[in-house]
Amino acid sequence: MKFFIDTANLDQIREARDLGVLDGVTTNPSLMAKEGISGEANILKHYVDICNIVDGDVSAEVISTDFDGIVAEGKRLHELHENIVVKVPMIKDGVKALKYFSENDIRTNCTLIFSPGQALLAAKAGASYVSPFIGRIDDISSDGMALIESIRTIYDNFGFETEILAASVRHPMHIVECAELGADVATCPLSAILALLKHPLTDIGLEKFLADHAKSN
Ligand code: G3P
After folding, report:
1. Helices 92-103 + 67-80 axis angle, to 10
2. Cα–Cα–Cα angle for 52, 54, 58, nearest 5°?
């Protein structure tokens, strides 16, 4: 399974890269705003800065919601860097744009996926990735992981090559369960990736090894 980091924060992206387990980055307009990045020129430069840190796919989201706007914006993003994947919302004009991009060799990530039907439609339109938002589904007392399972079954039934990119990941068990269910990618906050490291018995065991070593030297 691939690990992406879900942030526009350059320091966090560097930290995840330096851990040696980072395969890509996802961003969205909220994450860009959180870093104080505004204005088209600054936003485009920030995407290039991210691409220069990570050797892997970097999702950059369009703001337009009409077909012509999505296509024009997507082409601008695509031309920025070979690692850019154009992130398109799951709306009617977005689906049309996914088809257009797929026919023109522009890779895409269909975002705001909350149902198996949406994921099926995105795959039919040729999306490279779909992003089911598992945390936001859990937030409303529903089952985000059931959505991953359902999409996996549908894609396997028909051999769709669209990759399942589990998004809105909140904690390490989301990552583990996504791995068990066969999600192709999990995009995670840095905290969730680092939390995979933790186990109290590891800490206790290491403390004892080091104490025993000190006693015998
Ligand atoms: O990038 C999309 C997704 O990961 C958003 O996550 O935490 O805002 O639900 P969250």
Report:
1. 40
2. 95
| Residues involved in catalysis | 87
d(CA 81, CA 46): 12
User: Domain holding 197: CATH number?
Assistant: 3.20.20.70
pLDDT in tens, 38-75: 999 999 999 999 999 999 999 999 999 999 999 999 99
For atom 6 of ligand 1, the residue with the nearest CA is: 168
Q: How far is the CA of 111 from the centre of ligand 1 (A)?
A: 10
Is the beta carbon of 167 within 6 A of some atom in ligand 1? yes
For residue 135, how far is its CA from the centre of ligand 1 (angstroms)?
8
Provide the β-strand partners of residue 132: 113
pTM for the full model? 0.96
And the tokens for 48?
A: 């290039």
Supply 107's token pair: 């890779």
Phi/psi of residue 132, nearest 5 degrees: -75, 130
Domains: count for the chain: 1
The parent domain of residue 179 ranges over 2-215
